[in-house]
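All the exercises in this workshop are built on plain-text protein records. A learned vocabulary of local backbone shapes supplies the integers on the structure line. Once this layout is familiar, the rest of the handout is easier to follow. An example says more than a description, so a record of this kind follows:
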Amino acid sequence: MKRLHLTSLGCAKNLVDSELMLGSLELSGWRAVEDPAEAELLLVNTCGFIRPAVEEAVDEILRLAECKQADPAKKLVVTGCLVQRYGKDLQNELPEVDLFVGIDDQQRLPELISELTGGEGGRLILHQPSCGLISSAMPRRLSTPPFRSWLKITEGCDNRCTYCMIPAIRGKLRSRPAADLVIEARALEQAGVKELSLIAQDLTAYGSDLGSSLPVLLRQLLQETEIPWLRLLYLYPASVTDELLDLMAEQPRILPYLDIPFQHVSSAVLQRMNRRYGSKELDRLIARISRRVPDCALRTTLMVGFPGETEDDVQELLDCLQSWQLDHVGVFPYEDEEGAPAAEFQPKVPDEVKQERFARVMELQAQISQQRLRRLVGREEDVLVEGVSQETELLLEGRTRFQAPEIDGCVYINEGEASPGDIVRVRIAEAHIYDLVGGIIS
């Protein structure tokens, strides 16, 4: 078989695209290998959302270009958001690449790669994002452990946040039909998936273009599958409904965990971001979640250093974090993105001020996260076992319902035996800043 080396960069949504590309290439006679030196095809699925992701993607392309230089018979193919955003520039600046492919043509990769000739090089296949959607009929090779997977339920986004280029890169919101998502969920269940994480650019927008909604989809997934853990990631704050929260409270298979990116808490900053809520709405949202789903873990992301952000805005953010006591918070300094409206906003916050604010927020949240975890000490919790710990072979490693894969902490299991994919009962004995320690009791 022909051999390929695939590098997938960026978010889980991008990883699903990579898994679909790999599935179609395997059907065409390709086999994935870990070592790029062993591959005839070097494939990179890029992220182009923010500047650090762009830099990471370019570095990876150049690394693989060196591998190709050692063996000119190799083909280097680049696809994903970076190509969709900067395709023509990349074509001019990276002559080492044989083929650039935009998002809408990813499923044509087997055909496009077969058309490559020795003397071509630098070909660009790029169209504006259309109404195309992935489907359950497409072959998919999971890259996650067999007991967990992502389910991408929409493509694109209709929110026009002033700092974000996703609508320009990925196009308008398109929801996948619920029947197709149920088919894919059933297939994943049959393959052994026990934790299915629903993902989208804005999960709460699901179905708005189909006359449906996220709660309707969840009810169908609950009825048509027996997957024990359904996790919800990336919800827009202003669109979290009481109907959704009540369904979570009624259905223990929908995990008491919500990832809701706030981006900021200051109403003035949020208005400049073109977010459809302010600090009072966030207060009410957290109160509604606490009232309807009392044990719910909350994750958010926050941006510091947005143009015009003041010390008062940052202090309001810190005060809110202290008051809200969120379980998990990701923080990143704002950076201008070419083409985004916010890139033209003034006044800019100096880089050293951004970093100082970032450090203050992270320091406070580290204390809060540890306090939140301490409430679990002495409790018995269901834990999905991931396998032997990355820290030491003497421990197992897993996650509670309150810890999402790859972004939150874990549970180190120091007593008992279990296999990867088992859901076991663990008594929590210790809490650290981000991780827990406990032993299996059943």
